[in-house]
UniProtKB/TrEMBL annotation:
This is Type-4 uracil-DNA glycosylase. Its EC number is 3.2.2.27. It comes from the Bacteria. It comes from Candidatus Nomurabacteria bacterium GW2011_GWC2_42_20. It catalyses: Hydrolyzes single-stranded DNA or mismatched double-stranded DNA and polynucleotides, releasing free uracil. Belongs to the uracil-DNA glycosylase (UDG) superfamily. Type 4 (UDGa) family. The keyword Protease does not apply. Keywords: 4Fe-4S, DNA damage, DNA repair, Hydrolase, Iron, Iron-sulfur, Metal-binding. Pfam families: UDG. SUPFAM superfamilies: Uracil-DNA glycosylase-like. InterPro entries: UDG_Type-4/5, Ura-DNA_glyco_family4, Uracil-DNA_glycosylase-like, Uracil-DNA_glycosylase-like_sf.
Length: 199
C-alpha cells in the first residue's frame, strides 16, 4: 500500500507541476497505470485519442492487442505497470518532440524509481531511444539491453510498438515471438543468470 500511495502522490504532483507544452492542447494528463509492485514496467510513446479522453494509457486498439499478448504469456494488465515517455497527447498523434520528452522525463524517472522493476520493456523506438539513443528498433527488438540507470544496473527489452503491428501485419508475428521471451527473461533475471556487461 505504501508504494501505491507514493505513486498516487507522484502523479498528483506531476499533473500539477509538469511543464510540458502539450498540456495546453491535451484533454488531460495520462499518468502510468497498473501494479505498483510489478516486476515489469512497459514504456510506450505517448497517449492517443482514447487515452487522452479516458486518462489511462493503452486503452485503445494497441492496448487491446497488448492485453492479448499478455494473455499469451499468462499475464494480465493487473500484473504489470504501463506508462509513456510523454504523458500528454501530441496533436493528431504526431511524434513527440525532444523538448516534450524532456519535460516529462523526471516524471518517468520517479515512476521507475518507485516501482523498481526487474525488467523494463520498451514499446516502440521512441521509448527505447530515450534510454538508448544509438539503437535501432529493427536491430534491438527482442534483445536484452543492460545499462546503469539512475544509479542501478537495469535490464531492458525493446519491442515493436503494438500500434505498428496494426498497420504492418508482418510485424505482428515478430512482436508475438519477442513477447514470448518475457517469462524466460524474468526467470533468468530472478535466478541472476543474465550477466552481460552493461553498455
Amino acid at each position: 500500500m505504501k508504494r501505491e500511495l507514493a505513486l498516487k502522490q507522484l502523479h498528483e504532483k506531476c499533473l500539477h507541476d509538469c511543464a510540458c507544452i502539450l498540456r495546453k492542447t491535451a484533454t488531460q494528463g495520462v499518468p502510468g497505470d497498473g501494479n505498483a509492485n510489478a516486476k515489469i514496467v512497459f514504456i510506450g510513446e505517448a497517449p492517443g485519442a482514447k487515452e487522452d479522453k479516458e486518462g489511462r494509457p493503452f486503452v485503445g486498439s494497441a492496448g487491446k492487442f497488448l492485453a492479448e499478448m499478455l494473455g499469451s504469456i499468462k499475464m494480465k494488465r493487473e500484473d504489470i505497470y504501463i506508462t509513456n515517455i510523454v504523458k500528454y497527447r501530441p496533436q493528431e498523434n504526431r511524434d513527440p518532440t525532444a523538448k516534450e520528452i524532456a519535460d516529462c522525463a523526471k516524471w518517468l524517472e520517479e515512476e521507475i524509481k518507485l516501482i523498481d522493476p526487474t525488467l523494463i520493456v520498451f514499446l516502440g523506438r521512441h521509448s527505447m531511444n530515450h534510454f538508448f539513443p544509438n539503437e535501432k528498433i529493427s536491430d534491438a527488438h527482442g534483445v536484452v539491453l543492460i545499462a546503469n540507470h539512475l544509479g542501478k544496473l537495469r535490464h531492458f527489452l525493446p519491442l515493436y510498438h503494438p500500434a505498428a503491428t496494426l498497420y504492418n501485419g508482418s510485424l505482428r508475428e515478430v512482436l508475438k515471438k519477442d513477447f514470448r521471451k518475457i517469462p524466460k527473461i524474468l526467470k533468468m533475471l530472478d535466478e541472476k543468470n543474465i550477466c552481460e556487461k552493461p553498455i
